[in-house]
Specification:
single chain, 108 residues, Alpha-Beta Plaits, alpha+beta
Length: 108
Amino acid sequence: MADYLQITTAAASREEAERIALALVERRFAGCVQIIGSMTSIYRWQGQVEQAAEWLCLIKTTRPRYADVEQTIRELHSYECPEIVATPIETGSPAYLEWLAKESTGDR
């Protein structure tokens, strides 16, 4: 059985989040991307405390696809240092995980 991941990234706009999500699903690097937003992020960047509206992408994929997901985010993201955080999915509905594995196995 494949290892499953949920990867998060926060985008500067809904359009950017949708562009990333569509690319990941169309390239079959992710089975599903959910976009949540807008949300407020408060963070330190280059010595300053910043505040921004962002849209959170929850990317469902498999461990072998991590590098493809990361490369696609870096390719399409406007941030110099985008959030790319992977969390293992320890367990889940067998039918959903089977679907996820099937949908995340495409080639470029």
